[in-house]
Design brief:
This protein is mainly α and 510 residues long. Helix content is 55%, strand content 6%. The protein has 2 domains: 2-195, Fumarase/aspartase (N-terminal domain) (Fumarase C, Chain B, domain 1, Orthogonal Bundle); 202-405 and 414-508, Fumarase/aspartase (Central domain) (Fumarase C, Chain A, domain 2). The chain has 20 helices and 9 strands. Strands 4-6-7 form a 3-stranded antiparallel beta sheet. Strands 1-2 form a two-stranded parallel ribbon. The relative contact order is 0.13.
């Protein structure tokens, strides 16, 4: 049972709930914090003081006073009017991440909501009631309003949800799960939808999977390095030490470790080739920079996961309700764009190694397109085409969404983050990268086998075995699209970790 306290959530814990379905509950300290915050709202209502979103309208309608008899209807109308999302529904893991993050943000204890509301959000997760949440319609300020409204509607028995494989009304899903809808108190509708949880959830899960894909990319790199008779001398620790970017050193150490004990590497230690092409020699510099970018993005995302991001914020010390801008997702938008670029570059350099592998003029004796009978067979010619198409598509996805603000709410919200778009683009780049890595793994495995009887390194041999468990050697032409896709899904799921992790030091794991 994972406990939420508003401050201790990690990517690993989020993945265990979102993907693994682990149950979750509130920490013992949370109910008192929620009660203190809720007391501030109750006292403000009793005094008649105007409080944004509690007894006023929203956005440009902030100066419209709402009478006491309409306060509950105000919150319900907010959910209904803001559920204007469109497009493909989020996957179950992303919906679960969104709900977990919303509950954790409320658990910080500055949102003015009741304990029973937060507990119902967690009950949706624990009973696997997954609201249908369209992924488009948010500009990332004032929070991810539309998608969060679709999620929140199910809490009041409206909207749609998936339960036990069937999509039905929110009321039906709650009833079948043995749950009852809640009637919102003043402030609670706003507290449910004012936040960055779509943007943060999509990016957080992208980062979880990115670690697996980058690890597989290191394995593919090692295969290509050995298959192309590349040198590991460029990765000498002394050269890395005088340019001490952490990621660069980690990639260099990983490639040395994966190729450890290689008969292929030893066979050409004294050859007359002074320098390898950049896609081999500069792998630590290129992939290392991406690792550093992902590490920075992870730090930002984890901070955001443990933040209160709604408006207004409610502080019991001083009985103050403060209108702030924590809902603005600029931190997430910027790093999501950074993640997209970092992952795109891992794919770009992988595609260049794949091009080397299939070009008989530059592959140090490998047959054209890695087929035993070039001409009659085209071999892996089109595998490189596919990787090139994906790498080029990723470049188009790297236009930064976070610089493309557009005003909303009659100009009241005159600068927005576009973080949801940035996060979805990063997710798309990652999925393309997994397919590029699959293409390189297939080609690298083929190349290493052409170097027999020379044996590859211990790590490289483990990666080769993992590839061959999914994709048999290509001796005669056959369709490879399904094999690429299947291996890409393995990469995204971390199926190659067992071949790669044992050969890397704990500090060198992406």
């Amino acid at each position: 049972m994972i406990e939420l306290d508003g401050k201790g959530l990690t990517l690993e814990l989020l993945d265990r709930v979102a993907t693994g379905g682990e149950p979750v509950r509130l920490a013992a300290s949370v109910p008192a914090a929620l009660a203190r915050s809720r007391g501030v709202i109750d006292r403000a209502l009793a005094s008649g003081a105007p409080v944004y979103g509690v007894n006023t309208g929203f956005g440009e309608l902030k100066n419209r006073h709402i009478g006491e008899s309409d306060l509950a209807r105000l919150q319900l109308n907010l959910l209904r009017s803001h559920a204007a999302g469109v497009g493909r529904p989020l996957g179950a893991a992303e919906v679960r991440a969104l709900g977990l993050l919303r509950a954790n943000s409320l658990a910080v204890g500055v949102s003015g909501v009741r304990l029973e509301l937060v507990e119902l959000v967690l009950q949706l997760l624990n009973h696997r009631v997954h609201p249908v949440v369209p992924e488009q319609g948010s500009v990332g300020a004032s929070g991810d309003l539309a998608p969060l409204a679709h999620f929140a509607l199910v809490l009041v028995g409206e909207g749609r949800a998936e339960f036990e494989g069937h999509v039905q009304s929110g009321a039906e899903s709650l009833a079948k799960a043995g749950l009852a809808p809640i009637t919102l108190a003043p402030k609670e509708g706003l507290a449910l939808i004012n936040g960055t949880q779509l943007s943060t959830g999509v990016l957080a899960l992208t980062l979880v999977r990115a670690g697996r894909v980058v690890r597989a990319a290191l394995g593919a790199n090692a295969l290509s390095l050995e298959g192309l008779l590349g040198s590991i001398r460029a990765f000498d620790p002394r050269a890395m030490a005088v340019r001490p970017h952490p990621g660069q050193g980690r990639v260099a150490r990983a490639l040395i470790a994966l190729t450890g004990g290689s008969g292929i590497v030893a066979s050409h230690a004294d050859c007359d080739r002074i320098q390898d092409p950049y896609s081999l020699r500069c792998a630590p510099q290129v992939m290392g920079a991406s690792l550093d970018a992902l590490a920075y993005a992870t730090a930002v995302v984890v901070r955001e996961m443990n933040s209160a991001t709604d408006n207004p914020l409610v502080f019991h010390d001083g009985d103050e309700v403060i209108s702030s801008g924590n809902f603005h997702a600029q931190p997430i938008g910027l790093v999501a764009d950074h993640v997209a670029a970092a992952l795109s570059e891992v794919g770009a350099i992988a595609e260049r190694r794949l091009d080397l592998l299939t070009d008989s003029k530059r592959s140090n004796g490998l047959p054209a397109f890695l087929t035993p009978n070039p001409g009659l067979n085209s071999g892996l010619m089109l595998v490189q085409y596919t990787a090139a198409a994906l790498a080029s598509e990723n470049k188009t996805l790297c236009f930064p969404a976070s610089v493309d603000s557009i005003p909303t709410s009659a100009g009241q919200e005159d600068h927005v983050s576009m973080a949801p778009t940035a996060a979805r683009k990063a997710r798309a780049v990652l999925e393309n990268l997994a397919r590029i890595v699959a293409c390189e793994l297939i080609a690298g495995a083929q190349a290493v086998e052409f170097r027999a009887p020379l044996a590859p390194g211990r790590g490289t041999q483990a990666v080769l075995a993992a590839v061959r468990a999914r994709v048999p050697r290509v001796t005669e032409d056959r369709p490879l699209g399904d094999a690429i896709e299947a291996l890409a899904q393995d990469v995204l799921a971390g199926a190659l970790d067992g071949a790669i992790k044992p050969h890397l030091g704990e500090g060198d794991l992406p």
